[in-house]
Design a protein that fits this description.
198 residues; six-stranded mixed beta sheet; two-stranded antiparallel sheet; 8 helices; 45% helix; globular; binds uracil
Length: 198
C-alpha cells in the first residue's frame, strides 16, 4: 500500500482546484475534508456552510461544536476520524454574502467522484451519514425518521444514518435522539474490533 496520507493530501489539492459544477464560482474555497487518512470511521455531512467556506474545514460552525461534543461522548476526536461532506463547495442562494441551501442533484452527482475516491483511499469500516442528503447517497429511498441510529451492512462496511447536528440544534426531540444514536457508534466499533462485524 502506498502512502495513504500523501495520496489523500494530493486528492485534497485536486478537490480544491475542482471546477466541475457552478458552485466553484461562488466559493471562497472548496472544503475537501479533515482527519485521519487511516480513520476507521468517516462522517459525511451535507455541504459546507458559510463558516466552512471561509475556513476550508468541515463542521466548524455551531453544528461543528455540537459534533465535537458528540464525538467526545464516544471517546473520539476529529483526529481519530475523517469528516467530509457530500458536496465540497458551499451551496448558496441569493446575492453576496449569500444564504446556505442544500445541494441539488446535479451538484451531488458532479461531486460524487471525489467522495468515491475518499472512500477508496481511507476505506473506513463505518460510514456515519449526517442528515438526509448524505443518507440518500448510501441508502436511497429510505426515510431518515425510520432508519436513524440503525446500522446497515453494505459489503465490507457499515452505514449508520444519523440526524444532522445542525437540525438537531433547533429541534429538541432530534437533539436527544442524536445524542442517544451516537452511542451506536461505540457499539459498532467494539463489534468491529472484536470481529463480530466486518
Ligand atoms: N453542515 C454540513 O452538512 N456540513 C458542514 O461542513 C457544516 C454544516
Amino acid at each position: 500500500m502506498g502512502d495513504v496520507k500523501a495520496e489523500l493530501e494530493k486528492l485534497h489539492q485536486q478537490i480544491k482546484a475542482c471546477v466541475a459544477c457552478p458552485l466553484h464560482r461562488t466559493r471562497t474555497q472548496a472544503v475537501p475534508g479533515v482527519g485521519s487518512a487511516r480513520a476507521r470511521v468517516m462522517f459525511i455531512g451535507e455541504g459546507p456552510g458559510r463558516m466552512e467556506d471561509l475556513k476550508g474545514e468541515p463542521f466548524v460552525g455551531q453544528a461543528g461544536k455540537f459534533l465535537d461534543s458528540l464525538l467526545a461522548s464516544v471517546g473520539l476526536t476529529r483526529q481519530d476520524v475523517y469528516i467530509t461532506n457530500v458536496v465540497k463547495c458551499r451551496p448558496v442562494r441569493g446575492a453576496p454574502p449569500y444564504e446556505n441551501r442544500p445541494p441539488n442533484a446535479e451538484e451531488v452527482s458532479a461531486c460524487a467522484p471525489w467522495l468515491s475516491q475518499q472512500l477508496a483511499l481511507i476505506a473506513p469500516k463505518l460510514i456515519v451519514t449526517l442528515g438526509r442528503y448524505a443518507m440518500e447517497v448510501f441508502l436511497p429511498g429510505r426515510k431518515i425518521s425510520e432508519v436513524h441510529g440503525k446500522p446497515f451492512s453494505q459489503g465490507d462496511r457499515i452505514i449508520l444514518p444519523l440526524y444532522h447536528p445542525a437540525v438537531a440544534l433547533y429541534r429538541v426531540d432530534q437533539k436527544e435522539t442524536l445524542i442517544k444514536d451516537f452511542q451506536v457508534i461505540r457499539k459498532v466499533l467494539t463489534e468491529i474490533s472484536s470481529g463480530a462485524r466486518g
